[in-house]
Design a protein that fits this description.
Length: 257
């Protein structure tokens, strides 16, 4: 593996964080009332200063606390909608990025679990797994009645994108498995129904609504990215770096936040 390949996730997070930090600041500046936010912050600073200067005068302190609360509320009201316009698209963007950066594909020769969950525990013994060439089962199916689940241990023999097929009650459904290097788009679970859960956790089409199988899952390893002497989940590193970039661009562009 080359240096670029091994450091590609870290480089991607760095670059994306820089761009997102800039876009967040520009969007906030464009959608907010900059003059009103500046005035609200100045009022808040003045009341805080009065609190420090007249801390031995109880009536002034009480009035200052009341004015601080009002100024804080005014600032939050002014900042709420612009922040919402930034956070909502950023959340859905992060969900899509997680398909590429959150998990690591399997290596050739690596074994992993395939799990299927059914809606009716009475059909657990009838659930079967069918593997394409390139994948092989290494142990018998394990039934977990308490969870309505069946699990198989599978070994990846070579790189490729595969469809493993789970059959139950005369219906067969497939789940993609990726054996590769780099940052391919991955989905650890395929679900039936559960729209919002599929939006956030699955990158595959829904399973048949009236089918016996509720979910098929493969357990990809989580990706960690070394940075500053620590191993980071990409989303935390992205959050920290994009915030740093945002504050940098805020100062450069003179945008009030």
């Amino acid at each position: 593996m080359t240096f670029l390949q091994s450091h590609l996730p870290a480089i991607a997070v760095w670059l994306i964080s820089l761009v997102i930090g800039l876009l967040m600041v520009l969007l906030f500046g464009y959608t907010s009332d900059q003059k009103a936010i500046h005035l609200a912050k100045e009022h808040l600073k003045a009341h805080l200063l009065a609190l420090r200067l007249f801390q031995d005068q109880i009536p002034v302190v009480v009035r200052s606390y009341g004015r601080i609360l009002l100024a804080t509320g005014r600032y939050l009201r002014l900042a709420f909608m612009p922040l919402l316009l930034v956070i909502v698209p950023l959340t859905f963007f992060a969900v899509q990025l997680d398909r590429y950066l959150g998990l690591v594909p399997f290596d050739a020769g690596q074994s992993f679990l395939v799990k299927a969950r059914v809606s009716n525990p009475e059909i657990l013994d009838d659930v079967s797994l069918h593997l394409p060439s390139g994948l092989a089962a290494t142990s018998p199916a394990v039934h977990i009645p308490a969870e309505n689940e069946v699990a198989w241990r599978v070994s990846a023999q070579r790189d490729g994108k595969y469809d493993v097929t789970v059959a139950a009650a005369n219906q067969s459904v497939a789940k993609q498995v990726v054996v590769a290097s780099g940052m391919p788009r991955l989905s650890s679970v395929r679900l039936r129904g559960q729209f919002w859960e599929r939006v956030f956790f699955s990158a595959e089409a829904a399973l048949p609504a009236n089918g016996p199988i509720e979910a098929i899952e493969v357990q990809y390893p989580s990706r960690v990215i070394p940075f500053a002497g620590f191993e980071w989940n990409w989303i935390w590193l992205f959050f920290v770096l994009s915030m740093i970039a945002g504050f940098f661009f805020k100062s450069v562009l003179g945008i009030e936040i």
